[in-house]
Amino acid sequence: MIRTVCLHGPESTGKSTVGPRLAAALGTPYVAEYGREWAEAHGTDFTMADLVVIAEGHDAATRGALAEGRYPVVLDTDPLMTAAWAEMLFGRVDPWFDAWTGTADLYLLFDIDLPWLEDGTRMFGTVAARRRFLEVSRAQLERRGLRYVTIRGTGEARYAAALAAVRQFC
Questions:
Q1: What is the per-residue DSSP string for 84-122?
Q2: Is the per-residue pLDDT at 169 higher than 80?
Q3: Count of structural domains, the chain
Q4: Where does the chain show beta strands of DSSP type E?
Q5: Which residues pair with 151 in a beta bridge?
Q6: What is the pTM of this model?
Q7: Which residue range(s) make up the domain with 62?
Q8: How many other C-beta atoms are found inside a 10 Å radius of the C-beta of residue 157?
């Protein structure tokens, strides 16, 4: 049974656009990106301790959504994505991330085939940085042997690809 689907990948790839639509189509809960909320409230001058707090906040929100008992819960990122941020920002991850065991049942890895858009919280807009962020994101999944599907396309095609991937496994 697929209890959680996590939208994973670099910034500005459509996760926050597709996520609510996906949850609405499935009639299941949606957990918004906690890191964005945190950054909007506290700024983007992150420390490693900040990233752990963000990961803990997202994990708590996920557990709350799972308690509703409607599956699959759609997650706009999770602590593995925060670990990718740690690697991008600091070249390492805190041991908290390696100890975390609440991984999703299915990850949708959003490709960088959309234009990068500045929104005040994004940091890695060059082509090289976006490629690196995608590879760091993918490595987080592959290191743990997690199931994932890469999502590509623009507009409606991107949403349709995500919905089809979820339906394939649910």
A1: HHHHHHHSS--HHHHH-----SEEEEE-S-S-----SS-
A2: yes
A3: 1
A4: 4-8, 30-31, 73-76, 106-110, 148-151
A5: 110
A6: 0.94
A7: 4-169
A8: 11
